[in-house]
């Protein structure tokens, strides 16, 4: 029987494959070691290979596409309802293949190496920022136990710690001064890492023509443009701008029944990092719109009077996502009205 669909359950070392024919009858299954995966699929005729969009999926998707297979990545939450029987790797592979045959099943676009490079830059930078925030909060809390108070904010901690170390009359012990100095050195090191990653992101944004076009849109800076390109790519994975907003969780949740439409707050699905950057960029545009008179600013000011600053910022973030998709999908430049 000719194999038309393959469900591939990914792992670090051991992979499980279940094969189906055109009638979706199971015609074979096999366990593969990592070194055997490419050899196995190179002997198969080109077919549909379905995988969960998990760690390593984009790498294997690119490799299998080079062999001529049609790769479909599916979000794990959409695969779970198709699992039958007990939890095991073969049943997971069967569920992946079953989900892939559904005509309306949405697929995750396979990221290129460049997109994954950009994503790695942002993930490392975001993690260092979290560590810096945690370290500052920890230093403030430790100093407070000695009756000394530091104001909130990284800049405040950066200024206050050297002053505390130089003050010999504040009651800090020799041991704690050494610990505080060590924490301050760690803070300086973290800021060096953050500056490095930020510089790399700004450099890639300057070199990427798509990022330069996005930065002409209000609310898009080098960081927002970089991560937007890394997530959306050329925009061809989405049919329309609203699909991008929905993928980023910037559209209302729906809880309707009995013909009664009920819309709630935004769904907050998808990449929360990019969504937060878009909202922060939109908030900056909203705050500066009061002194402007262009059509976008007029729309912002009218909406702000009716709905408030926060809802206006989210609505503008939705609009920015659609505008960014249009520029990437149609390969055009931003022309303010």
Q: What's the mean pLDDT score? A: 91
Going across the major beta sheet, what is the strand order? 3-2-1-4-5
Indicate how many domains the architecture comprises: 3
Total helices: the number is 13
Shape, principal axes of CA atoms: globular
H/E series: EEEHEHEHHHHHHHHEEHHH
Q: Report the helical percentage.
A: 55-70%
Structural class: alpha/beta
Strand content: 5-15%
Largest sheet: 5 strands, mixed
Care to describe what's here?
- The structure is a single chain.
- With 337 residues, the protein is α/β, with parallel strands linked by helices.
- The chain folds into three domains: 5-100, ATPase, nucleotide binding domain (Nucleotidyltransferase, domain 5, 2-Layer Sandwich); 114-207; 211-330, no CATH class.
- The protein contains 13 helices and seven strands.
- It has helices spanning 37-42, 57-66, 76-79, 89-100, 113-144, 154-166, 174-207, 209-214, 222-232, 241-247, 272-288, 295-307, 309-330; strands spanning 5-9, 14-20, 26-33, 48-52, 70-74, 252-254, 263-266.
- The strands form two sheets. A five-stranded mixed beta sheet has the order 3-2-1-4-5.
- Helix 2 (57-66) links the parallel strand 4 and strand 5 (70-74).
- It is globular.
- The relative contact order is 0.07.
- The model has no long low-confidence stretch (mean pLDDT 91).
């Amino acid at each position: 029987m000719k194999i038309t669909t393959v469900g591939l359950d990914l792992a670090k070392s051991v992979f499980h494959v279940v094969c189906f024919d055109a009638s979706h009858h199971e015609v074979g299954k096999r366990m593969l070691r990592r070194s055997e995966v490419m050899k196995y699929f190179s002997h198969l005729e080109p077919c549909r290979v379905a995988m969960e969009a998990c760690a390593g999926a984009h790498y294997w998707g690119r490799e299998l596409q080079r062999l001529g297979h049609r790769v479909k990545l599916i979000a794990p939450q959409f695969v779970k309802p198709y699992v039958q029987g007990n939890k095991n790797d073969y049943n997971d592979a069967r569920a992946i293949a079953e989900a892939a045959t559904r005509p309306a099943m949405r697929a995750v676009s396979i990221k290129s190496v460049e997109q994954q490079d950009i994503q790695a830059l942002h993930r490392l930078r975001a993690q260092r920022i979290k560590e810096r925030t945690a370290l500052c909060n920890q230093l403030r809390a430790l100093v407070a136990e000695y009756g000394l108070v530091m104001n909130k904010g990284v800049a405040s901690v950066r200024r206050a710690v050297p002053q505390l170390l130089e003050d010999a009359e504040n009651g800090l012990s020799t041991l704690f001064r050494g610990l505080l100095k060590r924490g301050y050195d760690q803070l300086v090191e973290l800021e060096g890492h953050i500056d490095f990653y930020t510089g790399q992101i700004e450099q890639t944004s300057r070199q990427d023509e798509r990022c330069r076009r996005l930065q002409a849109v209000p609310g898009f800076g080098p960081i927002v443009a970089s991560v937007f390109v890394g997530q959306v790519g050329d925009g061809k994975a989405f049919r329309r701008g609203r699909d991008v907003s929905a993928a980023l969780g910037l559209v209302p949740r729906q809880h309707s029944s009995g013909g009664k439409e009920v819309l709630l707050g935004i769904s907050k699905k998808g990449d929360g990092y990019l969504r937060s950057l878009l909202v922060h960029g939109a908030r900056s545009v909203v705050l500066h719109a009061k002194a402007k008179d262009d059509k976008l600013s007029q729309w912002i000011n009218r909406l702000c009077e009716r709905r408030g600053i926060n809802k206006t910022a989210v609505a503008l973030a939705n609009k920015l996502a659609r505008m960014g998709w249009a520029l990437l999908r149609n390969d055009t430049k931003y022309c303010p009205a």
